[in-house]
Design brief:
Layout (H helix, E strand, L loop, with lengths): L20 H8 L6 E3 L3 H10 L4 E6 L13 E5 L12 E3 L7 H14 L5 E11 L2 E10 L3 H10 L5 H8 L12 E6 L23 E5 L4 E5 L4 H18 L2 E12 L5 E7 L6 H6 L7 E6 L2 E5 L5 E3 L4 E4 L13 E5 L2 E4 L5 E4 L9 E4 L10 E2 L5 E6 L7 E4 L2 H9 L2 E3 L15 E3 L11 H13 L4 E6 L2 E2 L2 E2 L2 H13 L5 E2 L6 E3 L12 H20 L12 H12 L3
Parallel strand pairs: 1-5, 3-16, 4-8, 6-7, 7-9, 11-21, 21-25
Antiparallel strand pairs: 2-3, 5-6, 8-9, 10-11, 10-12, 10-13, 13-14, 14-20, 15-19, 16-19, 17-18, 22-25, 22-29, 23-24, 26-27, 28-29
Helix pairs in contact: 1-3, 2-4, 8-9, 8-12, 11-12
């Protein structure tokens, strides 16, 4: 099997694979006499439907029987309260400088002890949907949090007969040295010091929440976090770490294949934060001009040797603000979170989207939303698109040289999305750098740098930056972005050297041609490139140099800054 769940007596003990302090603390909780195992989606649905506060809408789950549900299953709505986004500030990652695992282990032990008075539910799913890469994940969560449990099983792959057989015949990840993922979660937890447990090891300024990841041991402890997205991304965090250790590039983005005339294909990968346009790009049908196959719009991995790609999840965790009540796309909803509800003229309960109640309304959509959806693309990836919201970058540029291509991904500049809950005092409108659009990394940044560099240098993958925000106060519309991509995949895009840059080409796009004689523009462009230089330099000292990049990365971005004139 892909990850290891059962051990011969001879393989159990100190210093052996799957046996370490943090993992032992977390896994042991799964065997308590207060634990109920949830084996099917039907069980999870019934628990969520009956959970206090759940809104049972009159919207049917489309073809629900294909997902392990009864034919009459309804879309369930659950709202989390005032918190409707992820809280990165609470993340503590074992191995990073300043992270006190000994103290965090005590917090986990105490939280699990307190949970003994509660009924706990144990669910299992698969992450990764191809025999080449499948890992098993376990979640333990208290009674009262049935909607998180149900959403988790919907978001990842529940154990259907088809996938159980696939998993049993799948390749052992890491030559059998990767144990199953175990996650203990108590959203009802609230931190408080005790004689033997201090909250000083938490990074949350209020000491009330914690996401503790020990990805080397494939385990995590999520405390005080009610938002489902914490559990989704927390699970992906560990699966991506496993992928990284085993030769894959871990990707927070979307990928699709254009099936062109003459049997040709073009595989495009777009990397961006939530709200950047990666889902729009991934699912765009281009007015029916192309036959399109979708891998996924949020989470996948690329084999850096074969360049084949594998989806990590079957469904889509998507924003609802662009899908008004009655929108045809809502046919494919499975559950909804943090949106309003009302009654229509027929007395039926309907959801109210468009972020009227709060920002970052969310839904899980079935894979049926995207026709021609697959779990694996065998064809090698042709292009990487770094999606940025940097007002000094034209709608598209092409990067030459593997070091520049990779370091531009490492300095991906964008704006925060409503999917994130920011720490007190943080500016939600500030331009920030999120390397490779993946804020969920738990391993050194250099690992990603080397993998994406290999894809460009060794596998000859093209690399572009596309700006989906504003370019010098003029909005780049989705029609601009999609039009640019169409020219690239058709081979008609005429890129030419951009100004004095030796390693950046530009495609002139009507209405967005940069005026390199405009000193105001040049000043801003230099400033943004200087920001990137300073970011790479800071990596040498921040967190004790944990995320330091090779010297060539700094040299590549400094070259761009020096040529910016």
């Amino acid at each position: 099997m892909a990850t290891k769940a059962y051990y011969p007596i001879s393989e159990i003990g100190a210093g052996k694979v799957g046996f370490s302090k943090t993992r032992s603390i977390i896994e042991t909780a799964f065997y308590g006499n207060n634990v109920i195992k949830i084996n099917t989606l039907k069980e999870a649905y019934e628990l969520a439907k009956d959970s206090p506060g759940t809104v049972i809408t009159d919207m049917p789950v489309y073809r629900g029987e294909e997902f392990g549900l009864d034919r009459d299953a309804k879309v369930l709505l659950f709202n989390d309260g005032a918190i409707t986004g992820r809280y990165a500030t609470a993340r503590r990652i074992a191995g990073e400088p300043g992270v006190d695992c000994a103290e965090l282990d005590k917090v986990a032990m105490d939280a699990i002890y307190r949970s003994r008075w509660k009924t706990l539910y144990h669910a299992q799913v698969y992450v990764g949907l191809d025999p080449e890469f499948m890992v098993k994940a376990h979640l333990l969560i208290p009674e009262g949090e049935e909607n998180i449990l149900y959403n988790w099983m919907l978001n990842f792959q529940y154990m259907s007969d088809f996938y159980v057989k696939m998993y049993n015949n799948s390749k052992p990840v890491g030559d059998g040295k990767e144990p199953d993922i175990y996650i203990f979660s108590d959203p009802q937890w609230c931190g408080s010091d005790s004689p033997t447990v201090s909250m000083d090891c938490l990074s949350d300024p209020e000491k009330k929440t914690l996401c503790y990841f020990n990805t080397d041991e494939n385990c995590a402890c999520i405390l005080g976090m009610k938002y489902f997205g914490e559990h989704k991304k927390g699970t992906l965090t560990m699966a991506w770490a496993i992928a990284d250790r085993n030769g894959y590039a871990s990707c927070h983005g979307g990928q699709k294949r254009y099936n062109l005339k003459g049997g040709k294909t073009y595989v495009a990968s777009a990397f961006g934060l939530s709200g950047s346009g990666k889902s729009t790009i991934t699912h765009a049908k281009h007015g029916g001009k192309y036959d399109i196959t979708v891998l996924h719009d949020d989470a996948f991995i690329i084999n850096t040797d074969t360049c084949a790609s594998i989806a990590m999840e079957p469904s889509y965790f998507d924003k609802t603000n662009d899908y008004p009540t009655g929108c045809p796309d809502n046919t494919y909803l499975l559950t909804v979170q943090n949106v309003a509800a009302t009654m229509d003229e027929d007395g039926k309960v309907q959801i109210v989207t468009e972020d009227i109640r709060n920002g970052n309304g969310r839904a899980i959509k079935s894979k049926l939303w995207s026709p021609n959806r697959v779990d694996r693309l065998e064809e090698p990836v042709n292009a990487i698109f770094w999606i940025m919201k940097d007002p000094t970058i034209p709608p598209v540029v092409k990067l030459k040289g593997s070091a520049l291509a990779s370091v531009m991904g490492a300095t991906l500049a964008t704006k925060r999305s409503t999917a994130e809950r920011l720490a007190p005092g943080a500016d939600p409108d500030a331009l920030v750098v999120v390397p490779y659009a993946n804020p969920f990394r738990t391993y050194p940044l250099a690992n990603d740098y080397e993998k994406f560099k290999k894809l460009v240098e060794v596998k000859h993958v093209d690399c572009f930056i596309i700006n989906t925000g504003d370019f010098m106060d003029k909005k780049v519309k989705p029609s601009d972005t999609l039009g640019i991509i169409e020219q690239i995949i058709e081979g008609s895009a005429e890129f030419k050297p951009w100004a004095s840059f030796s390693d950046i080409d530009i495609l002139d796009w009507e209405g967005f041609v940069p005026d390199m004689k405009d000193e105001t523009y040049l000043k801003q462009l230099r400033a943004r490139m200087k920001d990137r230089v300073e970011f790479i330099k800071k990596l040498e000292t921040v967190k004790g140099g944990y995320d330091k990049l090779p010297k060539e990365a700094l040299e590549a971005i400094e070259k761009v800054f020096n040529e910016c004139r």
